[in-house]
Amino acid sequence: MMFIRRQNRLKFPLINLAILNPYFTGGTIVAITTSFILMGFEYILSQRLQLVLGLTPLNGLTIMMMALASLVGAILIGIILTKFGTLKLQWVTHFIGISSFYCFTCI
Fold first, then answer.
1. How many domains in the chain?
2. Domain range spanning residue 83?
3. Contact between residue 49 and residue 55 where contact means Cβ atoms under 8 Å apart
């Protein structure tokens, strides 16, 4: 707390605390959480493919489809975001993500 108070009073602060507005902080938290969820899912999926289904590590290249889908999604998200706004886009992407995780558990 003393660090924050001191940084706000300095003419040239070590860390510019003005960047920690709610939009930036919220977006950062969502991005980190999503990254952890996807990394965990890819780890669990690779273990399931090898240990439960008995596939070889070469068959694990099926996980690469998720990476390619993420690449395409990252490119298209800017276009879609400007048309529909963040709130609608968040609901749609969360619905798609939850639906795909549910379909995966039904396999």
1. 1
2. 2-105
3. yes
Distance CA(23)–CA(26), nearest Å, equals 5
Q: Which two tokens stand for residue 91?
A: 């609901």
- DSSP class of residue 12? S
Distance CA 92, CA 107 (A): 23
| Residue 8, both tokens | 């706000």
Over residues 94-107, the pLDDT tens digits come to 888 888 888 877 76
Report the C-alpha gap between 13 and 7 in whole angstroms. 5
Rounded CA gap, 11 and 65, in Å? 50
pTM of the model: 0.60
